[in-house]
Amino acid sequence: MIRIAAVGDIHLGTDSGGTFAPVVRELAGQADVLLLAGDLTQHGRVAEARVVAAEVAAAELPVVAVLGNHDYHDDAEEEITRILVDAGVIVLEGAGTVLDIAGTRLGVAGVKGFGGGFAGASCSEFGEPLMKAFVRHSREVAAGLGTAFGDLTCDIRVALTHYAPIPDTLIGERAEIYPFLGSYHLAEVIDAAGADLALHGHAHAGSERGSTAGGVPVRNVARPVIGKSVARYEIAHGGRADQDPQTPPPSRVPAVEADSRALS
């Protein structure tokens, strides 16, 4: 059983020192990995990234992250990534990582993601060069997630993005902005990869639970959505073979979506 703690959109600023470190400390012994679904900073500033790094540096469990749109705002995403990596965080962008947890290999594939919309209301790669570039980038980012999954040899597969792969977890946001909150291209890749769980943030007014067309559970772990410091999920290994493709296999549904109210 793999115990996952996850949260996105923590938006730490230069005045946030000491606010997230207690959460990380309390996860020791309660979770096997902490996944951060982007928007770790307020404005993508290097000084803010140093605060994030200091808050997670003493973590007693692996920390895996993707960046979010806020983390790109100041055009310092490469330095932010370096600062986080120096603090021991595994930062993914079109890449994956495999963690051996008590003999079970947890694979996490991650990208920031991008917008573009969903079936029936999506942008197309047509018209002005800027619109074509927008949609092309969305496709390329999703393809990067597919490449990351393709490189994983593991027992359990988790997708970690900032932007949403489905509209279900956006419910509560204004429908007019859905195309700027995620893209169905991500969901197509997640289904093709046979992921067991997909986690994202970004949509602060969205909903926590949904699933892809292929039955992969998707959870919006943006802090304003989950209403607590972290969400926790437990996934058991096994049971995916010989399942009806229209029926989510047992390992695709988190065995327990644990109550994390004890984590302040």
- List segments where confidence is low: pLDDT < 50 over at least 5 consecutive residues: 239-256, 259-264
Class by alpha and beta content: alpha/beta
The tally of beta strands, per DSSP, is: 13
The DSSP helix count reads 7
Roughly what fraction of the amino acids lie in strands? 15-25%
Architecture overview:
Helix content is 25%, strand content 22%. It has seven helices and 13 strands. It has helices spanning 21-26, 46-56, 69-72, 77-86, 129-150, 184-192, 223-226; strands at 2-7, 33-37, 63-66, 90-91, 95-101, 104-111, 117-118, 121-122, 156-161, 197-200, 209-211, 217-220, 231-235. Strand 2 (33-37), helix 2 and strand 3 (63-66) form a beta-alpha-beta unit.
How are the elements arranged and paired?
Elements: E1 2-7, H1 21-26, E2 33-37, H2 46-56, E3 63-66, H3 69-72, H4 77-86, E4 90-91, E5 95-101, E6 104-111, E7 117-118, E8 121-122, H5 129-150, E9 156-161, H6 184-192, E10 197-200, E11 209-211, E12 217-220, H7 223-226, E13 231-235
Helix pairs in contact: 2-4, 5-6
